[in-house]
Design a protein that fits this description.
alpha+beta; Jelly Rolls; Arc Repressor Mutant, subunit A; 2 domains; 12 helices; 12 strands; 20% strand; globular
């Protein structure tokens, strides 16, 4: 049987989430699941068995999926899983930091690498589709594909759009296929997927070295700004998140006459300085301001601030308040 239909509605409400856990472990892989609706988890799944390639459409309202190192050690099918998000949005992590996914995004995951996904889906429709295939079926080197892990790929246009439409057609026409169609359907699915990945990688390679360097630096800058609140944000973490060496990261920032560590520290201090001068944050303790930008030691923060701006953070805040009052500004904003 090529098509498998499944719904949690076949059991009583308290049993539905456990049934879903069991069904997805058999159809996909073993993960740790959580949902805000676990007391009455309403979900559906439609699977299309193409031998080594498995295609499925899933519908639910909210689902958090976590694949841990322990689960990987216990059981690893060694497959790539490609997710196509049909409605809603969520957060996906395949390492330390998060990536936002939205309707129309494709994303590549690997059963051998830990990840976490937290998706709030639109009700009344399929939430997302998955394709699972053995890593060896794709013609691209694993090291190359790794650059695409947990990176949103547009399924709205180009090769990504073609692959997304193919998946939707597979789901819509699943009942029309026969076992004789399986080799062709599987081959086309893998070929399209390989083309999407290759096109993403080619787009990067067609840039001039200078343009690639500029684009990489822009990604690094945006990444650091998004994660300044994380006390564990270090040059090593930034380099690892972008699959580059620490030496290359150093070179990217050397043009500005700074080092990665100094640059991260400076950006944190600048945000703290702006918060200390903001009238709307007057009631927020200084240690809280320091913590919200990644400084866990208030004394260390105070010393750094004094060394950078020539006065302790408390004096800077007092001076900013006085300057605001002297100018008779409206300080409620």
């Amino acid at each position: 049987m090529l098509v498998t239909e499944f719904s949690t509605n076949i059991v009583a409400a308290p049993e539905r989430f456990a049934l879903w856990e069991d069904a997805t472990e058999r159809s996909h892989m073993r993960n740790r699941l959580h949902s805000n609706d676990r007391n009455d988890f309403r979900a559906e799944m439609r699977g299309l068995d193409l031998a080594e390639v498995q295609v499925a459409a899933l519908a639910y309202s909210h689902l958090e999926v976590v694949r841990t190192p322990r689960l990987i050690r216990q059981s690893d099918p060694e497959v790539y899983q490609i997710n196509y998000f049909l409605g809603g949005q969520g957060i996906v992590s395949a390492g330390k930091y998060d990536t936002t996914v939205r309707t129309g995004d494709l994303m590549v995951m690997d059963s051998s690498r830990p990840y976490r996904g937290d998706v709030h889906a639109d009700p009344g429709r399929w939430s997302h589709m998955t394709v699972q295939c053995p890593r060896g079926l794709l013609p691209l080197p694993a090291k190359t594909i790794r650059r695409l892990f947990a990176v949103p790929i547009s399924g709205r246009s180009g090769m990504g759009g073609m692959f997304a439409r193919w998946l939707c057609d597979l789901n819509a026409r699943a009942d029309e296929f026969t076992p004789d169609d399986v080799p062709t359907l599987a081959s086309v699915t893998v070929d399209l997927l390989g083309s999407v990945m290759a096109r993403c990688l080619e787009a990067e390679e067609t840039l001039s070295p200078e343009a690639r360097r500029t684009a990489l630096r822009a990604r690094v800058v945006a990444f650091v700004e998004r994660h300044l609140a994380d006390p564990d944000l270090t040059p090593g973490a930034v380099a690892d998140a972008h699959h580059i060496s620490r030496r290359l990261l150093q070179q990217l920032l050397a043009e500005d006459g700074t080092s990665p560590a100094a640059w991260i520290r400076h950006r944190r201090l600048e945000h703290c300085r702006l918060d200390l001068a903001a009238p709307g944050l007057n009631a927020l303790p200084m240690r809280a301001i320091a913590a919200r930008w990644g400084f866990t030691d208030p004394k260390h923060f105070s010393r750094l601030f004094h060394a950078t701006y020539g006065m302790p953070p408390r004096d800077y805040r007092d001076r900013s308040r006085q300057a605001c009052a002297n100018r008779h500004q409206l300080c409620a904003n």
